[in-house]
Amino acid sequence: MAVRVALVGAGGMGRHHAKLITAHPSARVVAVADADHAAATDVARAVGAGVASDGLEAITASDVDAVVIASPDATHAEYAVAALEAAKPVLCEKPLGDTVAQARAALHAEVAGGRRLLQLGLMRVYDPPHIRLRAAVSELGAIRHVRAVHRNRNDVVRSANLVLSQSLVHEIHSIRWLTGSEFRSVMVRATPRPGGGVRYATVSAELVAGGLVTIEFDDRAFGYDVSVEIATDTGSVALDPPDDPARHGDWFGWFAEAYEAEVDAWIGAAAGGTATGPTCWDGLAAQVVVEACRTSLGSGRPAIVELPPRPVLYG
């Protein structure tokens, strides 16, 4: 029987998930919700689903087995908690919450249920070049330095807070995943963009395991690009470039294979009433680092990353 999915959020990311789920042989979208009713209706019509009056109605519907959350960031935690309390597997786009408190609320809801139900939409762990990089690094000894570069083609002016929570959260999580270490401290600098907001940002960080991290970000580059270089005691390794960079004008093209693998993994786990992949803990840990970055940016000084104890549920 196909997994019946409610989609909460009918913007660009929601539409992409709807397309991938509809193409999957073991799942179908049965309900779509969005504050923009016209957008929800448009997506629902395209995939043959119904339109819910709001996200909570879609999540709690009796004919819904699992939930995808692709709504605005500030609503993620509320909908995630509702799905977890309804004991329904959920694929939640990053960030898990707009604040540490929101992310913690989602984590507590999952821990209270006693089993993993949430997969966080940090798709790089399903990206073949990132997977190969992680495997190579594991053979090279202690990590001494990680350099990550993230370039966007973004015409929308964004604040430093949004750049951190919407974009650099990917580097924060992937570095944790690639190195197996949490962040110890961060120092952030940013340069303004004409007309407001931030264009360039750098993060200098130290890992608990002892390595150093440099993250470089450009929100309005001439093309989309992601790269990672890792230096260890015995050698160095870099992320494989895409076969055809000209095809990749944004992250949807760059990570097309990763998104397909992410949704496939989620549907497979949801069919069994569970979840794999990035966790609520990953979401909370990344958000704590984001908050430390915000503190550093505001003070002009390094900020310490203070994580809470890791619940047993997450290993």
Overall description:
The protein has helices spanning 12-23, 37-47, 55-60, 76-85, 100-113, 128-137, 160-179, 251-254, 256-271, 280-299; strands at 3-8, 27-33, 50-51, 66-69, 90-93, 118-121, 143-153, 183-192, 198-207, 212-218, 220-232, 236-238, 303-304. It is globular and about 55 Å long. The protein has ten helices and 13 strands. It is an alpha/beta fold and 315 residues long. It folds into two domains: 3-123 and 260-278, 3-Layer(aba) Sandwich (Rossmann fold); 125-249 and 285-304, Dihydrodipicolinate Reductase, domain 2 (2-Layer Sandwich), CATH 3.30.360.10. Helix 1 (12-23) links the parallel strand 1 (3-8) and strand 2 (27-33).
Q: CATH fold name of the largest domain, please? A: Dihydrodipicolinate Reductase, domain 2
Please, what is the average pLDDT? 95
Strand fraction = 25-35%
The name of the CATH architecture of the largest domain is 2-Layer Sandwich
List the helices and strands in order. EHEHEHEHEHEHEHEEEEEHHHE
Low-confidence stretches: none
Structural class of the secondary elements? alpha/beta
Ends distance: 31 Å
| Radius of gyration over all CA atoms, rounded | 19 Å
Strand order of the largest sheet: 12-11-7-10-9-8-13
Q: In percent, how helical is the residue content?
A: 25-40%
Number of domains: 2
Enumerate how many helices there are, as a single number: 10
**For this structure, what is the CATH homologous superfamily of the largest domain?**
Dihydrodipicolinate Reductase, domain 2
The gross shape turns out to be: globular
